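Researcher: Dear colleague, please comment on this protein.
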Amino acid sequence: MKDLQLNSNRATSDAFKRRVVILGIFFGLILLGLFIRLWNLQVIQGEKFRTLSEDNRIAYRLVQSPRGMVFDSKGELLADNRASFNIYLIREDVKELQETIRLLAEITEQPFEELYKRTRGANPFRPFLIKADISRKTMAFLEEHKPDYPGVFVQVTPLRQYPSRQEASHLLGYMGEISNRQLQRLKKRNYRQGDMLGQYGVERTQEKFLRGQSGFKQVEVDAYGRELRVVRPFVEKPGNNVYLTIDMELQKKAEELFEAHEGSIVILDPSDGAILAMVSKPSFNPNIFASGIDAKSWKGLMKDPLKPLENRAIRGQYPPGSIFKIVMGFAVLNEKIARSNEKIHCHGSFPFGKRIFQDWKKGGHGPIDFIQSIAQSCDVYYYTNGHKLGIKRIAHYSRMFGLGSPTGFGAAEKGGVVPSDAWKRRRFKERWYEGETISVSIGQGFNLITPMQAANLIATVANGGHLWKPYAVKKVLSPRGKTLFESRPRLIRKIPISQKIFRKVREALKEVVHGEKGTAKKARMPDILVAGKTGTAQTVDLKYTGRKKKPEDLPRKFRDHSWFVAFAPYENPTIAIAILGENAGRPGSFFAPYARELISFYLKKNEQRILASNETPEDKRLSANSRAPGNRR
């Protein structure tokens, strides 16, 4: 028994010794590995890491991917990007913050206190934008003095550029540095202090598509902040490209014609509500915002009495004047207030109570029916029938045609005013008086509409009663050409009025241009039938202004607004246009030739395009040969 117990104890002791040896070898190998690793780091690569530890370090550099481009409907480039030299600062790396900020404020021409306050509120470990788009002279100075100002560096980033400058500026919009309020709202979407954000127009509404993704690359820098090599790159992810419905050639033509005026031109495709051109004058150059507008320039824009930043097409609210007779015409015929061939005798005035409402034509128009009431823009016809209709029905038909509320084009759009008894009680705490209906009947009084609403009104008449939501974005494509979004026309409503009445109103509008007594003969074209309506809207009751003989003798704010709306061709409309001359002091017929030129330009251009698209390969070959230098005559 004792021998068995001794043998068992020896076996246990031997097993324990083997385990100790194995563990010893294992730990020995680990120590050997650590020793070899330390030898490699400290001896073999010692000099390299000594240099890195003393002079170099890893830094983060912001990489901003290019913003998506904007094109017109034919592919013309409207918004692009260019290289910009930007100054950044990493607060944690700055030794003398106040001294550094003072220098940067001086060379970038910014107020020291404001810049210092902004810098103090920034993340100390992330690059903070001091100034975008600096001059090459400023960049050279910073590069030369880089050792004196650690934490400050210059980086090339893409900057927004608008080749067309002021053309279509209100539609395209502009870029601006993100505000603190916007930053709080957009932090979760990876926006940072100093980022540029679409602040207006298409740049704002399409921000989610246009914005390129930004991020940080890790770089090795020396003691002076100079980049030595990229440790971890960031792959740029450009924004998507937006294609608009506007025809830039037509836009430029409209801008050129309207250069000397204040107001707006809106041109729509009546078949679906696509915006072909949208002009607001005066305009502005969006390029001044791309690199950050200075306080003085911004203050100048804000204090400009003509308000160049205001998009008059969707935010300007004006009395419609006689173009409102289009709505009144539908109401009169549809409510059977008068038959189309029924005549009212116009003596040149309409007495109501103690007041006499004058017609624009002294002495009156004589016996006049519906067609001629539109063609000659007879006020007495609408005074008479407007009184019979009453304000409730007038307001009903106004809203039916989209007046009194935004068209749906944009969030900043205003809706104008459709006056009614309920509206006046809410607004002024007063009841409606019947005498006020007389003024409303010819588009005066409390009536207010926008040029966009006017364009949509005439487009609805042109297409036979389809009230479309105007839109400007045609489609959005990825950088590789994949369709991410494509607009589909949206019908707001089909006007519940018979086509017989629509034809009668359209006939009256054709008579405005082509009739013997029409008020817009200057819009006539030799080979195309045009339908339209003139309008002149008073801004104030002229008996209080001391009106003189000439409109230009009046202060600008007292001058009449001028309207002209039209569509063409008459039988198959492809273009609808509204022109508003703000305080132009001219009759609406003054702008009829502008509409004629724009309609002619658009129709001829599209006719050429259609002919070109229908050419056979043989036609194109012959055409190319005829243009060869040797074949010129």
Remarks:
- The chain has two domains: 58-239, 311-462+498-611.
- Residues 2-44 form the longest helix (43 residues).
- Residues 416 and 449 are 5 Å apart (CA to CA).
